[in-house]
Design goal:
single chain, alpha+beta, four-stranded antiparallel β-sheet, elongated
């Protein structure tokens, strides 16, 4: 799946938004770290971009 705008917090189940919301100017690269903050508990999650994230985005002509 492509890099998500939101994820579900593992600790409390609340919504986590990507920070910053906009993707990088040159797009996502393998190994980039995406930061999410939970709206409910304020936990921060760091997720690394992998091959699956890039393969799906490359196949979508709307991106």
């Amino acid at each position: 799946m492509p890099v998500a705008d939101t994820i579900v917090c593992v600790d409390c189940g609340g919504p986590c938004r990507r920070m910053p919301v906009e993707p990088p100017e040159l797009g996502w690269q393998l190994g980039d770290v995406v930061v999410y903050r939970c709206r409910d508990c304020a936990d921060v999650w760091y997720v690394e971009v992998d091959d699956d994230d890039l393969d799906d985005a490359a196949g979508d002509p709307s991106i």
